[in-house]
Amino acid sequence: MNFPKDLRYTKDHEWIRLEGDVAVVGITEFAQSELGDIVYVEIETLNQHLGADSVFGTVEAVKTVSDLFLPVTGTITEINPGLNDQPELINNDPYGEGWMIKLKPDDPNEIAGLLTAEAYASLVQG
Q: In which residue ranges of the chain is pLDDT below 50?
């Protein structure tokens, strides 16, 4: 499994990367492998201000539907337009082209309190 060290992670299997004052969020390689082939992503929270751990959307795989949880409090500013036609981007490139949302965090320092790559790896690998 790949857990890039420049990202922070949640126990709910989302990752977050700060790019200037914008944070990019997606699901981890572990999450997409557990879900299987992703067939649909529904995110209807554009321009909404949500708290950390709030549901910002759902991801549908062949065998299940899972909620997506916001890693930190902030306002969703962009949804990955490529996921409408190619939800499999999440399976193929979860940390790159398969990103889900961009948000403006209320407090960027909140990201530092999330799991490091090492802590997340030990969580999922037991």
A: none
